[in-house]
Design goal:
Elements lengths: L6 E2 L2 E10 L2 E8 L4 E7 L8 H15 L9 E7 L2 E7 L3 E3 H6 L5 H20 L2 E2 L8 E4 L4 E3 L6 E2 L2 H4 L33 H4 L7 H16 L9 H10 L5 H4 L5 H10 L11 H37 L8 H27 L24 E2 L2 E2 L2
């Protein structure tokens, strides 16, 4: 049944935007506030699955608990004719998956996206929420240059201690039920190509799993290639557990060494050697942005100096002259000055005077020939 044109609660459905395994997204108009929103409906065949409904509602609860410019805002949740839906902000742009499919991104753009996403992860982890499915398809990039994390359907609610990076065996139990298949240890959830080693092994997870997944995303943004690739899921999982990806600088010579260090640190197999918090990653990425901007300023200054030097070399008036050339110019100036002085002396010796300059009198002082004008003192001379 098509929902286009129908009214769901106080939202009028306008058109279908897309769909996936866990939902169909429509553009709608909020009839109360007069704004455009996105409605995400759980597919009808999944509405009877309690675990699918739980995951769908989990996404709404997790995202609505967060208030960050790089996390998609959740406005409402409801049910229409047996179908569950989420109301979220309407975004214009495309996912990073589409952008990366066209090739690697500019380093400055990749760093800026990295800062925004890592800061959003820091906000989520601070609330005890682990995303567990960070990948390019779940990161939206708007036309205004803002990255947005989507789809918290696999999010796990943890204690604050686990979110700060405490070892899994030291962390307190999760807030979800132990019989919940979305959170129980031993369950492998997420997208295989972007899983962390502990996620691939089915171990209990904390915030550091998101940092490994985002390290894979950052690697892909900078190089345009997957960090761990293979024809089957088993091959990819083995690469995640044991293989070391090709150095980013070999695939992108413009990658700064500090950015390569950040990617490598995020992709550490042992989570104790990895970034322990997203805040650390944000700080390092901001240093890269600062240093890259400073290096660009220096490069521009050197380019301007080189351009000025080239202009001087092409322009004879500005070009530096050799010593013989300068001597010839000085001799010519002395000859011209000597000739000028000689002409002045010859003119003075001939006794000739300079002709008097004609001075124009005012009109009222000009007297016609043969006329006299009387005044109180007599005629004008």
């Amino acid at each position: 049944m098509s929902l286009i044109g129908s009214v769901v609660s106080h939202y009028r459905v306008i058109e279908k935007l897309g769909g996936g395994g866990m939902g169909i997204v429509y553009e709608a108009e909020d009839l109360r506030l007069g704004r455009r929103v996105a409605l995400k409906f759980l597919p009808a065949h999944m509405s009877k699955d309690p675990h699918a409904v739980e995951r769908f509602q989990r996404e709404a609860r997790a995202a609505s608990a967060l208030n960050h410019p790089s996390i998609c805002t959740i406005h409402d949740i409801g049910e229409h004719q047996g179908q569950h839906y989420i109301v979220m902000e309407r975004l214009e742009g495309e996912t990073l998956k589409r952008q990366v499919s066209a090739g690697r991104l500019d380093v400055d753009k990749a760093v800026e996206i990295g800062i925004q996403v890592a800061d959003a992860l820091d906000a989520a982890h601070g609330k005890g929420i682990v995303h567990r499915d960070i990948k390019p398809a779940n990161i939206f990039y708007t036309r205004r240059g803002q990255a947005k994390i989507l789809d918290f359907g696999l999010a796990k609610l943890t204690t604050a201690s686990a979110a700060r990076g405490m070892d899994a065996d030291e962390a307190e139990p999760t807030l979800s039920r132990r019989d919940d298949p979305l959170s129980s240890p031993g369950q492998t959830l997420g997208t295989v190509a972007y899983m962390s080693p502990e996620q691939a092994r089915g171990e209990d997870l904390d915030a550091r799993t998101d940092l490994f997944s985002f390290g894979i995303v950052l690697y892909e943004l900078v190089t345009g290639r997957h960090a761990f690739s293979g024809r089957t899921s088993a091959v990819i999982s083995d690469a995640i557990l044991h293989a070391t990806p090709v150095a980013p600088v070999r695939l992108n010579p413009n990658c700064p060494p500090k950015l390569e260090h950040i990617v490598n640190k995020a992709l550490e197999k042992e989570r104790g050697l990895r970034y322990q918090s997203a805040a650390e990653m944000v700080a390092d990425l901001r240093r890269v942005r600062r240093d890259t901007s400073s290096a660009e300023v220096v490069h521009n200054m050197r380019s301007c100096m080189a351009c000025h030097a080239a202009t001087k070399a092409r322009t004879p008036e500005l070009a530096p002259r050799s010593r013989p050339h300068r001597a010839r110019l000085a001799g010519a100036r002395r000859f011209r000055e000597h000739d000028r002085r000689a002409r002045v002396r010859r003119h003075a010796a001939s006794g000739a005077r300079r002709p008097a300059r004609a001075v124009a009198l005012p009109a009222h002082r000009v007297r016609p020939a043969g006329s006299e004008e009387a005044t109180a003192d007599g005629p004008l001379p």
